[in-house]
Design brief:
six-stranded antiparallel β-sheet, alpha+beta
Amino acid sequence: MTALYCVILAGGSKNGLWPLSTETLYKQKFNFNSACTLFQQTFLNVASLIDDKNIITTTNVKYNSIIKEQLKTIQEKFCRKTEYKVLSEPIFRNTAPAVSLAVQYIKDELSFFSSSAVILVVPSDMFIMNREEFFSYIEKGVKLANEGYIVTFGSETSDINEKFGYIKARKLTQISNVEESALKVSKFVEKPVSKEIKDDLKGRIYVNSGMYMFSIETYLTELKKCAPDIYKHISDKVVKNTTPSISLTDYEKIPNISIDYAIMEKSKKLALVPLNSKWIDICSWNALYDISDKDENGNCFYGKTADIDSKNSIVYSTSKLIATLGLKNTIVAETEDAVMVCGRDNTEGIKKISKKLNTKNSSEKEIHKTEYRPWGYYNVLESGNGFLTKCITVNPNAKLSIQLHHHRSEHWIVLEGEATVIKGKETVKLSSGESIDIAIEEIHSLQNFGTEQLKVLEIQQGDILDENDIERLEDIYGRV
């Protein structure tokens, strides 16, 4: 029997779904046409094929609490007792470091290193139309992985679009003897596709699904050969099911590169399993439109909406009522931070807006009302001249860094749970209804050693009230 593992990549955001997906708003936390989130759908799909104790999720420390909360919901809803494993990257990196981190973890922490251990890598935002058919392709991939191939999956196409990566493949007896439908990969092209490469993509061309399968031994061999800078920084590191799972000092040395550029474009060990079942990468509003239920006029509505006479449009509300009248081929999306309206034929422009607003020095960049952190998250309730109020939610057994502020004081009121507060040289315990003051430049930290979430109302006063006014002295999440 092949020992089969799965790595779910859930560490990034895609600006094609702005404002629903940003560095501070996480696309995988929203429900799209389902009672489950994108991430939960992916996890449950995989768990139908692979033992859920062998499913590892990789994410950024910023999203760690969201992922664990969603996994907890799965445990409760389906009565699962497995303690799910989440690997947290201390800083944003691309897919090659994330996959390598997970492979190293499986190799060492799970003590299973042999050619019979096969890993399936899947993105957390891919919508599968036919689960049973999808499983048949995974079974084909296992055969090839057991023979030492890195397996890719793709759908044949004649339309080359710069939004996707592509795989050029051909028949090879050596591979078809292992799996009849499988092909030899002759060229692997990561997105965006340049005009020169586009002209060269002729023959049997497949859209890259972003899924891969390989044995541990094959992956590490190809990583060492194709991406030695990643291999040397990851091969001797201890990776744990903690937050973060590797130290910031070690992880920031690893090149920020996708697995496609690092390995797939270089390796000679690639095989492709053609996909005939429909799958959609939820990377844009049009992709979401394609998978959504539609009314008789071709409209998709999410959240609080009211419409008259619109056609072929998508309206997404996270909180406020959106009323629409006579829209045609239009996208309307609302979050607590922003509202976006554009034509469905102009979705590429959304990425430009997103990049502009997320530029560090952009004057349009505002305080986000909800910010996720390794320890939990906070909501900005109100802000004005010289003050800002937040509701801080700290997860069980989590704590903020030991820090100080040069430009603001803080007043904390415990709303729910029990807080442990470091204030200067003192450690103070606070229950619901109790409060404490933190002076400017006073060393402090907020900690939750309980089993339930801690909620604290924070009132800031000062001349600078942003996240840059934090001097961290100690931090278990590697942000010092």
